[in-house]
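Q: Hi! Curious about what ABC transporter ATP-binding protein looks like structurally. Here's the sequence.
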Amino acid sequence: MSESILSIRGLRKQYASGTDALKSVDLDIKRGEIFALLGPNGAGKTTLISIICGIVTPSGGEVLIDGKNWQRHFREARTRIGLVPQELTMDVFEPLISTVSFSRELFGRRPDPKRIEEILRELSLWDKRKTILKELSGGMKRRVMIAKALAHDPDILFLDEPTAGVDVELRRDMWNMVRRLREHGTTIILTTHYIEEAEEMADRVGVINKGELILVEEKTELMKKLGRKVLHLQLAEPLAAIPPTLAEWNPRLSEDGSTLTYEFDAKAERTGIPSLLTAMRDAGIAFKDLDTHQSSLEDIFVGLIHHSKAAA
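A: Let's find out. The predicted structure is below.
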């Protein structure tokens, strides 16, 4: 078996208007990983997922699931994929258990009431199983969408902005459920606006902007490679301005003059901190406290998007 369960090659989508929604995307998804696809609105996240799931027709390129072309083996591919879409789309007059059971059979799986019960209990839906869908809250409807996607036991699960507009409790429940699914071998690809979601769960992160995949990296490596550290120095006495002798370190002074902030590359051989502190001592600037802060995935993401816009 190949390490990659999903291989995307030269995938393009151009709409009749001439808009390039995807520009020759190449991506390999490893079996059993959690992959987070980050990008601003309109970046191409949903288009990419919709093509893989057979909802949108690509303009070019191919998708391979375990080495098989997903268009030539469409029925098999679709059985192996589960999708939780961004929009809530359900037959609102159906009882909850009926719509989830129907989803299982729709993808060619035999009826399995025991499995459906397991899924509904996992998502805290069992007590609501006879409830008509239109009577459920937004958060509960989101849980039903996940149950429908899991009903046929897919190998690959796509979560398109799964926690957009849901409460913190449901978000935590979903994160826990995603981890359990991964433990059972499910490969999970999620798109998200919530940086902390990717930081919390993903093994690898891809950043997409204007239809181009601008970076794919192991999350820990990405944060190591691009993460910068910030040194905060609480001054003993406020400064009116930064003295010229400190200019080469380009520190920032807080509005009240009480804190100096210096940004540095944590991986560099020379961070510049010792020489900065020496220069401060020589200038008669004392500090009473200091701390460092590692940049988050959000800082990195914003920096990457800004860089790709500047290069465009």
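A: A fun detail: DSSP finds ten helices and 14 strands in the chain.
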